[in-house]
């Protein structure tokens, strides 16, 4: 099967809804479904979190960051306190990050795995920046911005996992497979994961989207976060470097000192969400 045939095969499967997830992803999805239940008691939520050691560690770490109410003299040291502090919506965002992260687990090809690890690092930084921008600049729901940042590249993670089956699929063809990922595969993967339309629509609009002035929407938040993320997506050949401060329209929205504070806060949050290694 040549590259074009492989692209067509993957796209056709996606359109038919034939998207298969690794066993590890399915297990986390069951956790996500349980937490989505409005009747899920906090004791059940804590039990579910403790059943996933990675999630438990990240929940406590996130609760101790300044962006989520930490930074005090007495750090959070247990899951119960952490869940109470960050709340269910932020916990759901962490579960989503675990889902996204698990896609890279079955990649064996070293080059593809390196791309997946860079993509994960980009994702955590972008999600954290989106959260801080939402709180301090755009006024959209910060938890929604965090969640959208985490899942904005889920289609790319899925395609990387599938590329392991088709050697050379993603070599030197970023524009073509990027369009395939964002226009076809990403939409179907997000549908399979039950991503809310308000989030999936904003993610879809990132391709070719324009930043409003002043920025005030989820799309604006994601576009800015993508530009300010210190680690670029290895799959995005379209991101252009930002002009120096003082030569950008966004300078009228916040000053350089505010931007530095946002990026510093986001860096701490991204670190709490997990390192680049896919385990």
Order of helices and strands: HHHHHHHHHHHH
SS strand fraction:
under 5%
N-to-C span: 30 Å
Number of folding domains?
A: 1
Question: What is the fold-level CATH name, i.e. the topology?
Answer: Hypothetical protein af1432
Low-confidence stretches: none
Structural class by secondary-structure content: mainly alpha
Main β-sheet, in a few words?
A: none
Shape: globular
The radius of gyration over CA amounts to 19 Å
| Count of distinct strands | 0
Can you name the CATH architecture?
Answer: Orthogonal Bundle
Determine the mean pLDDT.
81
Number of helices: 12
Helix content: 55-70%
InterPro entries: HDOD, RNase_Y/CdgJ
Domain HDOD: 21-209
Pfam families: HDOD (PF08668)
Protein name: HD-like signal output (HDOD) protein
What layout of secondary structure does this protein have?
Elements lengths: L2 H13 L7 H14 L5 H9 L2 H11 L15 H24 L7 H29 L3 H10 L2 H10 L10 H19 L4 H9 L12 H11 L27 H18 L6
Helix pairs in contact: 1-9, 2-5, 3-5, 4-5, 5-7, 6-7, 6-8, 6-11, 6-12, 7-10, 7-11, 8-9
List keywords for this structure.
single chain, Hypothetical protein af1432, 63% helix
How would you sum up this structure, described in words?
- InterPro entries: HDOD, RNase_Y/CdgJ.
- Pfam families: HDOD (PF08668).
- This is HD-like signal output (HDOD) protein.
- Residues 21-209 form the HDOD domain.
- The structure is a single chain.
- With 279 residues, the protein is mainly α.
- It has one domain (3-273): Hypothetical protein af1432 (Orthogonal Bundle).
- It is built from 12 helices and no strands.
- It has helices at 3-15, 23-36, 42-50, 53-63, 79-102, 110-138, 142-151, 154-163, 174-192, 197-205, 218-228, 256-273.
- Helix 4 packs across helix 5 (79-102), helix 7 (142-151) crosses helix 11 (218-228) and helix 8 crosses helix 9 (174-192).
- The longest helix has 29 residues, at 110-138.
